[in-house]
Structures are given as C-alpha cells and as structure tokens.
Amino acid sequence: MVVPEPRRKVPVAWDEGWWRPARRSPSPNQGERPAGLAVDLVVLHSISLPPGCYGGPEVEDLFLNRLDTTRDPQLAALAGLTVSAHFFIRRDGECVQFVPVHRRAWHAGVSTFQGRPACNDFSVGIELEGLEGRTFERRQYGVLTQLLKALRQVLPLRAVTGHEHIAPDRKRDPGPGFDWVGLRRQLRWSPARFPDVPTA
C-alpha cells in the first residue's frame, strides 16, 4: 500500500504567492523565475515620485505602466521604463503587492549578491515610500517586520539587504536614513542575515 506524502500546509496569510494583508495591484512587469533556484533574498528599496513627494498614485502608476511622465519634469526620465517590485509600503503603512512572490519582479537591475549576479532571479523586492538618505515612518517598519516574518513562512530566506548593497555603483537606497539596527532588533534574526552596519 502506497501512502501519499502529506501536502505541505500553506500559511493562511498567503494565497498563491499573494500576501493577504496587502492590497493586490498586479503589474504586467513580471516573469518566470529560473527553474530550481531558491528565492532566499529580500532587497529593500526606497522610492517616491516625484522625488520627496508622498501619498500620490505615481509609484503604483509606474509599476502598472500608466505613469504620465509629461506632467512633471522630474518624471520625464521614467518614460518607457518597465519596472516593478513585489511590494510597496506607503508612509501610512498601507502595503500594495504587484507581483506574487513565486514570480520574478523587475526591481534590482544589474546587481550581485555574494558573488551571485542577477538578483531579480532569486529575490523579493520591497519598496518603501521614502527618499534615500531620509528616515522612514514607524508604521512602515511595523508592516515591513510583519511582511518579512510572513515571507520566511513560505520562502527559505537567508538574507535581507539594500539596493545600495547589491548595486553600489548605481544605487544609494534605502540609504543612511534606514534603521537596519532597529529592524534587526524587531525581527530578532541573526546579524548574519543583514548588511554589516554599526550597532551603536
């Protein structure tokens, strides 16, 4: 008699790669991940459009390919850009999800983590509404902590890093205003999972 293997229980917080607490806003800018590659990295970013402006629809519009880049000179350089992230956490704590976590979002660009290139292939991208170098809201850290714990339920996460750490020649986000030490304390994960930052 053949005994079937027990089905892996999917945490109730997830629905086919979508985090239930997040508002779904599917982006066309996504693709298949390479077969057999573990998704074990989270990359944190910061974004605001126009830069330094918060609360508007522009970031979501960018990820949905409907951003009007003609209405503000600061948006002109984004014309024709096709990018996305898995998640976007606004200043007020709202979380929007654009791509299911088992699929590849287009957030990291040319990048390398611990000798592995093409970080989009094996990472989840989380955008925080903010400006590189400036601070973030307590509500954002609270939601980010919840999300990272939830991601660890369904993915074999080994590390959380910043865009600035995987593409240092091109990017500076989330920048010195991001509290890596505080995030580490909230999660109570090993320091080895985070960028090497001062603890004091």
Automatic annotation (TrEMBL):
Gene: ampD
Location (main, coarse): cytoplasm
Reactions catalysed: Hydrolyzes the link between N-acetylmuramoyl residues and L-amino acid residues in certain cell-wall glycopeptides
Coiled-coil blocks: none
Keywords attached to this entry: Cell wall biogenesis/degradation, Cytoplasm, Hydrolase, Metal-binding, Zinc
Full protein name: 1,6-anhydro-N-acetylmuramyl-L-alanine amidase AmpD
Cofactor: Zn(2+)
Any one of the GO CC terms: cytoplasm
Domain of life: Bacteria
Domain N-acetylmuramoyl-L-alanine amidase: 27-175
Gene Ontology molecular function: metal ion binding; N-acetylmuramoyl-L-alanine amidase activity
NCBIfam families, per the entry: PRK11789.1
Pfam families membership: Amidase_2
Compartment(s) of residence: Cytoplasm
Homology family: Belongs to the N-acetylmuramoyl-L-alanine amidase 2 family.
